[in-house]
Write a structure and sequence with these properties.
heterodimer; A: mainly beta; Thrombin, subunit H; 3 helices; B: mainly alpha; two-stranded antiparallel sheet; about 55% helix; about 0% strand
Chain lengths: ~325, ~475
């Protein structure tokens, strides 16, 4: 299937010239909609690339995305156990990775992130570890899978400008910080829904001032912590109608008219305090926030799988 | 043929009917607990599942959001294969067939999954509570058009089926009762109904996926006038209608007969019930009495049923044909293919459809006709292929363990008879006819099982035994419950 729009997107990377690449995971009967969409912040559409399969330029369970300094786009594939590499224009270049649990092998690669030396860190989630590779797939080292602080199905991973590695430790409901050698430094958060707590966090990013952004997937929110892990702010989502959706409604009055008479922001109290239900009924809220990414201009990008969209926020203060 | 103790036979029967079968290891655990306590635990424990929602949603966002029936159906299949509360899933299957609601009109997966969640949590509760929840269920409100049931312009669809298919059965009410019932349910609607109806008709996912549905009572659209219903007069709303329905002996009989039909033995198809007496009037009488004694408590009716002599009697063992969902649940729980979520669940869900039961999409408001109607040439082939293929697959951890359990303690060799006995035992203390048993022994013999050195040629032995298991999966007693 061609055209604009996403189908269960799971990650976004901001590449060369600010071009955004969002990967749609789609679902079993609709693998034709599994693809990467190229567009920009003004909703200009540049096309799609990638597709379902096991060949060059194909993936089955795409999950994480990252861009190198040349603008090439890297996409992890949890089912094919590999990393795909595409050019800035979406031309497939190569893939690397072998399944397994030995050093350098992958079992469900999820989030990926480059460090400043262009080494790629991979959340090897079914092996409960982070692995470091060169951008060409040569194994360097791994960490996070041993001891009492071992990871449990990590999802997102991030490397800060000063080389610290952050992992969204999905199964342990926390964010874990490592130094550039993979040595454990500390963790943030515990399981819960209160300020500074998490339920199955999916993504993490850190800005130049040290503020930590976490897509708190199970609580359907974006949490912001300071560099010491102190709670700063929590966002539940405030999406508006996108340009693409606006154009759709211009041509589909039958849907637009009754929608204009509908209450799309019902009182959340009727949903029993269950974030998943609140987000299912209140369209503007995050629903299934699977990744958070930052650009150099102070913007925060949250990819939401269940609402098939990306919410973009401006950092202030 | 090995002699199986009555306790084991009975527990295996219970697990087939109130659950999805059990392997020998599981049966042994249940037997150590005791029959009545197992029944109590099935009825009294809350719903829980080995694979939690977060795990499913991480890999398959479509399976728990407002998407289509394939995702919602696959999600249910996860529940069938991973539940720790098998009776909760059985009762969800039961009500899904009685209160049959279909995706073809609902065109939204989440309301369907929400309805099933309601069946799981309230399907063993009081009937009046359940019927009120059903009347407020958004999927049902769209499915039977109560969204178009307005003050002064009634739509009788829900009112009619509430009486005919959901509670009393044909012949126990008048056409006027249907109209008055429908008047009482005016205003029982959903929020944003015009928008939701438009999205449902167009099957639209714009702009941000399908919108979740929620019940909304529209007081200004409710007919608050006086109504006469089943001989009662008053300004009835839906609550009073349900109360009157539940007081009726016809409702007690209708629900009792459905429970008997599902758990004990096949009754004739529901449309013939007004003209055909129940096959076991005494059993139905016991259930009817429990219905009133417990004030319409479904869980208590099932507790009495499962502890009754008419249920325990060996004359009803293996007399029901497993529905495709029951068969798949049995097979996939045994193979343990889905220890964690994986991509094959959608394929397995499709295979259930090929066997004649598309979960969340019954053929009509009457649900699926059961019993022999599950069996026709195409579906029988699918059933046999499905069970044989998966239970004969040594790559599945559950199959591997069963084979190992068969080989254990046998030394260098195993006779055809012992091998068949142990396989039947491992698959859930299955009792076959003598003819089937002899055929299985003959197969084991001809397949060379007795001549294999179990110590030296383990892989060959495993392969041959898995082939025997594959054949057992095709015999009538495995396909029956």
């Amino acid at each position: 299937m061609d055209g604009r729009g996403f189908m269960f997107p799971v990650d976004t990377t901001i590449g060369k010239d600010g071009r955004m690449h969002t990967v749609s995971r789609a679902y079993a009967p609709a693998t034709a909609q599994l693809r990467i969409t190229m567009y920009d912040i003004d909703s200009e559409y540049f096309g799609i690339y990638g597709g379902y399969g096991e060949g060059l330029g194909e993936f089955r369970w795409p999950t994480g995305m990252a861009s190198d300094q040349n603008g090439n786009v890297y996409v992890s594939d949890e089912l094919n156990n590999r990393i795909n590499v595409f050019s800035h224009e979406g031309d497939p270049i190569k893939y690397w990775g072998d399944p397994g649990s030995s050093e350098g092998e992958l079992n469900g690669p999820s989030g990926i992130a480059f460090d400043s030396d262009e080494n790629l860190f991979v959340a090897d989630h079914m092996n409960n570890r982070i692995q470091k590779f060169t951008k060409d797939g040569n194994y360097i080292f791994s960490f996070g899978d041993k001891g009492q602080d071992a990871l449990n199905m990590p999802w997102g991973v991030f490397v800060s400008g000063d080389g610290f590695v952050y992992a969204a430790d999905w199964g342990n409901d926390r964010i874990v910080k490592y130094d550039s050698s993979g040595d454990f430094i500390r963790s943030f958060g515990s399981r819960g829904s209160r300020k500074g707590q998490f339920k199955n966090p999916s993504g993490v990013a850190v800005d130049k001032d040290g503020y930590i952004y976490v897509t708190d997937w199970g609580n359907e929110r974006l949490e912001i912590l300071d560099k010491n892990g102190n709670f700063i702010e929590s966002l539940r989502g405030q999406a508006t109608i996108s340009k693409w959706a606006d154009e759709y409604f211009d041509g589909n009055y039958e849907e637009a008219e009754p929608r204009s008479r509908s209450n799309l922001e019902p009182d959340p109290i009727q949903f029993g305090g269950v974030p998943h239900e609140e987000s299912a009924h209140i369209e503007k809220l995050f629903w299934g926030p699977t990744s958070v990414k930052l650009d150099n201009d102070g913007k925060v990008y949250v990819t939401e799988s269940n609402r098939h969209r990306v919410q973009i926020y401006e950092r202030t203060g | 043929m090995v002699t199986t103790s009555p306790d084991v036979k009975l527990m295996a029967h219970l697990l087939r009917r109130a659950g999805f079968g059990a392997t020998k290891e599981q049966l042994d655990q249940y037997i150590s607990i005791g029959y009545e306590k197992v029944v109590d635990s099935f009825i009294d424990t809350e719903d829980s599942s080995r694979i939690n929602d977060a795990l499913v949603r991480r890999y398959f966002p479509d399976q728990s959001v407002t998407h289509d029936t394939t995702g919602a159906g696959s999600y249910w299949l996860y529940r069938l294969v991973s539940t720790d509360s098998p009776l909760r899933e059985k009762i969800a299957l039961f009500w899904h067939n009685v209160f049959a609601t279909g995706y073809t009109k609902v065109t939204n997966g989440k309301p369907m999954s929400d309805q099933l969640r309601m069946f799981r949590s309230h399907g063993l509760a009081k009937l009046d509570d359940l019927l009120l929840k059903l009347s407020r269920d958004p999927a049902m409100i769209i499915w039977l058009d109560n969204v178009d049931n307005h003050n002064g312009a009634i739509n009788e669809n829900y009112g009619r089926e509430l009486l005919e298919l959901f509670s009393m059965g044909v012949g126990n009410y008048s056409e006027d009762d249907i109209k008055e019932c429908s008047r009482a349910f005016t205003g029982w609607s959903i929020a944003n109904s015009d928008y939701i109806k438009q999205l449902a008709v167009r099957n639209s996912i714009m702009p941000y996926g399908k919108l979740a549905w929620r019940y909304e009572y529209k007081e200004d659209d409710h007919d608050n006038g006086e109504k006469t219903f089943l001989g009662h007069k008053g300004n009835f709303n839906g609550e009073e209608i349900v109360k009157i329905i539940c007081e009726q002996p016809a409702t007690a009989r209708f629900i009792s007969r459905h429970l008997y039909h599902f758990f004990v033995a096949d009754e004739p198809p529901v449309p013939s019930w007004p003209y055909k007496e129940p096959q076991d009037l005494e059993a139905i009488s016991i259930l009817e009495k429990t219905y009133f004694d417990s004030r319409y408590d479904i869980g208590e009716m099932i507790r009495v049923l499962l502890n009754s002599e008419f249920f325990k009697s060996e004359t009803c063992h293996y007399k029901k044909i497993k529905s495709p969902a029951e068969l798949a649940g049995n097979v996939l729980r045994t193979t343990e293919e889905f220890g964690t979520p994986n991509i094959r669940i959608s394929e397995r869900n499709s295979q259930i459809t090929f066997m004649g039961q598309q979960l969340l999409n019954p053929p009509s408001v009457e649900g699926w006709h059961q019993g022999l109607e599950w069996i026709e040439t195409g579906s029988l082939t699918e059933r046999v292929n499905f069970a044989s293929q998966h239970l004969g697959d040594l790559s599945k951890p559950g199959v591997r363990r069963i084979v190992q359990n068969v080989i254990d303690d046998e030394g260098e060799s195993i006779s055809a008879e012992v091998c068949v006995d142990k396989c039947l035992d491992q698959l859930g203390a299955i009792q076959t006819s003598q003819y089937i048993y002899d055929t299985l022994v003959e197969f084991a013999q001809e397949n060379g099982i007795p001549s294999i050195n179990l110590l030296k040629d383990k892989e060959k032995a495993a392969k041959k035994i898995s082939e025997l298991i594959s054949v057992i999966a095709s015999v009538p007693e495995f396909q029956q419950s």
